[in-house]
Design goal:
Elements: H1 7-22, H2 26-33, H3 39-54, H4 56-67, H5 76-91, H6 97-109, H7 117-136, H8 143-149, H9 154-175, E1 183-186, E2 191-194, H10 200-204, E3 208-210, H11 213-221, E4 229-232, H12 239-245, E5 250-255, H13 258-270, E6 276-280, E7 293-299, H14 314-317, H15 322-335, E8 336-346, H16 355-364, E9 369-371, H17 374-378, E10 391-392, H18 395-398, E11 404-410
Parallel strand pairs: 4-5, 4-7, 5-6, 7-8
Antiparallel strand pairs: 1-2, 1-3, 8-11, 9-11, 10-11
Helix pairs in contact: 1-2, 1-3, 1-5, 3-5, 4-5, 4-7, 5-6, 5-7, 6-7, 8-9, 11-12, 15-16
Amino acid sequence: MASGASPARRVAHKVLMRVFEEDAYADRAFASEAGALDPRDRAFAQRIAYGAIQMARLLDHAIERLGGRPVTAMDPPVRNALRLAAYELAFLDGVPPRASVNEGVELVKASRARRAAGFANAVLRRVAEGIRELIGGLPESTPQEAALRHSYPDWVAETWWREWGPEDALALMKAQNEPPETAVRVVGTGEARVVDRIDPQELAERKVWPQSRASQLAGAAVGARPGERVLDLCAAPGGKTTQLAEVADEVVAVELHPGRARELEENVRQLRFDNVRVVNADARELPEDLTGFDRVLVDAPCSGLGVLAGRPDLRWRAKPLPELQRELLRVAAERVKPGGTITYSVCTIAKAENEDVVDAVISDQAKRVAVDPSLAETWPEYEHPRRSGVLLTLPHRHRTSGFFIARLVRTA
């Protein structure tokens, strides 16, 4: 084998270093590091980087049990090289174990912790011999056991165990450790299409927009019609915004972060929508003239527990945001006209951010808003199994991302 780790593994190692040592987002770190890779190496680098980030808790457990040393006591370049190699040894069948061990050692040799190469070699040889048996023997009969075996924080497993029961909780954990669906929205037709890969030419020509079927469902649930004004309160990067713009006369798209607002404007421009106005502002402090809308979409920030398959680092940084979600819905109720609708969507599977938020806002508004049950009548296949009138897509049942969607009507 030639000296030095492969380009794909070097990129993956840099991504892990940035995510775990610098708190970078995995998708942004990968995009900035992988630009020089050819398509095949890029795909491999993404697979092992995202996989190692996703399975970090389980991998760290295996490294510590088999290697005899806490990962927190290792230099960052060493522990992240071990995580990558351990992921290959545990989950990739097409790579010879010896190659994974050697590549991991080469990553250490190329780092500032090069003197630990011998240590890394010894640990990885033990990991190669025992990691699959160790993982296969881990129990999963309690939330805490399942969280370790499937590499989630305890609180996520405990939430799903409590709200869905052991069988569904385990199915959710397994489903969100699988690669997510690749889906696009066909621009101009509203068609949701699941594909093996996104055609780069169609993407460059803006004929398609990468967007899960569940996300497209949230946009469609707004029910925008010709002649209407629609307010999108948390709009970037623009998938649902442009989905609404295909139908409505006017869309006002609000985005708090300046960089994301610029990205939103660029996406709107490239998709050639001239009926979208981007407002860079805090949705809770909007100009007074932004009122009287026919419909409002609140695609609120959330814990993201429904999109963990596609965002490998999110499980380690996620937190529920019910207070913010309630504030945004109160703003929506103020800005929509009587008889208008508010669509609340969040990419999470947690009652505290779903049903509880809707109930709280109905109570806060002294019943000035009410659930529109026709949403579930239109899409009965996605009706929430425990709450009539609202929608919930579940990764293990619907094979798309997890979204909660409720449509409220302002009654007065």
